[in-house]
Specification:
Oligomer: heterodimer
Largest sheet of chain B: 2 strands, antiparallel
Distance between the termini of chain A: 81 Å
Largest interface: A-B, 43 and 40 residues
Strand content of chain B: under 5%
Order of helices and strands of chain A: HHEHEHEHHEEEHEHEHEEEHEHHEEE
Strand order of the largest sheet of chain B: 1-2
Shape of chain A: elongated
Radius of gyration of chain B: 22 Å
Number of helices of chain A: 12
Number of strands of chain A: 15
Structural class of chain A: alpha/beta
Shape of chain B: globular
Chain lengths: ~325, ~280
């Protein structure tokens, strides 16, 4: 009986603590919201000093963009102690859905919102405001033993549609080609198909699909005759980087617009951002981030691009 | 009194959570069928999965068959090993055998899936690639990784069943002059078989729902595989690969929820099986 009583007491205590904790966090949230609103309505002298910003930002989406946003958020929070930024992954589709439905402040995406939010969701995409913070270029890569340095667009199309099945047909070793692909919903695959192949491809029986770039690189490096594609930041000696139509996938060639297989990294907001979010997005485009974090993490600064591209893929020189 | 109210509240909350989760998965899962965008027959029996194509098709048969294939294979590989381990721990060397084997097997269940996947990718896949035709990635690799993952489940359930066997059954068998092997094969195994099968079904339920480790080694091509060493997909692997890349409410996203619904229904069936086995289990 004694034991049972103490057990009940313990339960009651735990629940009391749990409930009060809930209460506290609720209060905190309300306070935060209050500050946020205050920040939004605050006169401009606050924003110009920068140090008085306060509020919280929630960003989610593309895992490819996540490391950059996280690193930039760290230094932004160091400079603005009143701001709390949380960055979550989940994929481009998740980021776009959540920002369109107002669940997060920023939706990170590898692709234009119009490409994911189609048909019935098209008006959701129209409400989103695009902020292009970086560029990621993608290169075709093969196992080093395949013996090929360069592939033309047509050769790549034939390989990824299954017409060419052996490396000897494109001047390499006598070895069967093994495709290491991305899932058909992947943004990286969409970019590669749109700008390297110029056509959508179907999955082939026996092809391999992996989701993470690390696994793709490991597979290509270890599997004889493997071909795939990776962002430039992932390239190293374990895989062979293939030239595209004789053009080397280098940062310089991407910046000048000569190498076409690249995509923007987007940070979408639902309508125009509030002051805190805007300050963070502006910070993403400062030289400090663009020539610091962006380059350091293997992306290409959006600001240095000499060409720009719209949602339909039309490239114009800046 | 307070405790009782607290407990009732917890139970109520639990029921609400379970009911709402089942409702959420079910309502999302049948959305495509209600709106008529995908037919049930096309989803269950269609062999072509091409949601991003110009004329999309949503056949999930490759994934359903892939899930069943790896699950059955994993159970086939793991069951004999687990039953032998359980017999070893309870009948052959109950003393130090149990002290040594039990912690080792329990350790297996504590290793994160991603580690299993990476070991599979670094050890099993190259081994299969060098030994068999194909690229090593495929159904066989997935089943091997899964079989190690479900070993602890089957072993611990089987060991519990063997340990709870009444002592007098064994003693009568020995008294009649039966050897240890005869006792194990004619008395112990037949009487505990329903309980051991419960362990096997629980293991299969775990294998059916496992996502990450399988996704890393199975290859994920949306086709019914022509051999054990060819790339295939499971329901879980295609859900984890695509869910984040699709937007909520789109047809492809809802098709993924339909697959989640299939997984949930399969879990119900596994639970029902366990219940039925338990009823037979009374000695």
């Amino acid at each position: 009986m004694q034991f049972r009583k103490s057990w009940v007491m313990a339960l009651a205590l735990t629940s009391a603590v749990a409930l009060s904790a809930c209460g506290n966090s609720n209060n905190a949230a309300t306070n935060n919201g209050g500050n946020n609103a205050a920040a939004t309505n605050a006169p401009t002298e606050n924003s110009s000093s920068g140090a008085d910003l306060s509020g919280s930002i929630l960003a989610s989406g593309s895992t490819a963009l996540q490391p950059l946003v996280e690193q930039a958020a760290e230094s932004f929070m160091d400079a603005n102690s009143g701001v709390d930024i949380q960055v979550q992954g989940g994929g481009s589709g998740t980021g776009l859905t959540q920002v369109a439905e107002g669940q997060v402040d920023i939706g990170n995406s590898d692709v234009f919102a119009e490409e994911k939010l189609k048909d019935a969701d098209a008006e959701k995409a129209a409400a989103l405001v695009d902020h292009q913070v970086a560029v990621v270029a993608i290169a075709a890569v093969s196992n080093p033993d395949a013996g090929v340095d360069t592939l033309t667009k047509q050769q790549l199309v034939d390989i990824f549609t299954g017409k060419i099945k052996n490396w000897s047909e494109v001047g390499g070793a006598d070895q069967a080609i093994q495709i290491i692909n991305r899932p058909s919903s992947s943004g990286t695959r969409a970019t590669f198909e749109a700008f390297a192949l110029g056509t959508k491809t179907e999955d082939l029986q026996g092809s391999v699909q992996e989701d993470s770039s690390g696994t793709v690189k490991k597979m290509i490096g270890e599997t004889p005759g493997a071909i795939g594609y990776l962002a430039l930041s992932y390239l190293d000696d374990t895989v062979k980087t293939l030239n595209y139509d004789g053009i080397e996938p280098s940062v310089d060639n991407v910046v000048s617009g000569e190498y076409p297989v690249w995509a923007y990294q987007h940070m979408y907001t639902n309508g125009e951002p509030n002051e805190v979010v805007k300050a963070f997005l502006d910070y993403m485009l400062t030289d400090e981030v663009q020539n610091g974090d962006v380059v350091e993490l293997g992306y290409i600064p959006a600001s240095s691009m000499q060409v720009s591209r719209d949602v339909d893929g039309n490239v114009t020189t800046k | 009194m307070v405790g009782r109210i607290y407990m009732s509240l917890c139970v109520l909350l639990l029921i609400v959570i379970i009911v709402s989760m089942v409702y959420f998965v079910a309502s999302k899962g049948i959305a495509n069928f209600i709106s008529g965008e995908v037919k049930v027959s096309e989803f269950l029996f269609g062999t072509k999965w091409a949601p991003e194509a110009d004329t999309p098709s949503y056949g999930a048969l490759p994934f359903i068959s892939g899930s069943f294939l790896v699950t059955l294979l994993a159970a086939l590989i793991a069951s004999p090993l687990s039953i032998c381990a359980a017999l070893f721990m309870t009948e052959i060397v109950p003393g130090w055998g149990k002290k040594l084997l039990q912690p080792v097997i329990e350790l297996l269940s504590g290793i994160p899936s991603v580690v299993y996947g990476f070991v599979g990718l670094s050890v099993i896949v190259p081994f299969l690639r060098d030994t068999f035709p194909g690229q090593g990635i495929g159904v066989a690799a997935g089943a091997l990784v899964l079989s190690v993952m479900i070993l602890p489940t089957i072993t611990s359930v089987a060991a519990d069943a063997l340990a709870s066997l009444p002592q007098n059954l064994k003693e009568s068998s020995f008294a009649l002059g039966a050897t240890r092997w005869q006792t194990i094969s004619r008395v112990i195994l037949p009487t505990t078989m329903p309980a051991i099968m419960t362990g096997v079904v629980l293991g299969m339920a775990r294998a059916f729902g496992e996502a990450l480790a399988v996704q890393m080694v199975i290859g994920n091509a949306p086709f019914v595989p022509r051999s054990l060493f060819e790339s295939a997909s499971t329901l879980t692997s295609v859900i984890t690969l695509s869910m984040g890349n699709t937007t909520m409410g789109s047809t492809i996203n809802n098709a993924l929820w339909s697959m989640a619904l299939v997984l949930m229904l399969m879990t119900f069936i596994f639970v029902l099986l366990v219940r039925m086995l338990e009823r037979r289990n009374k000695i």
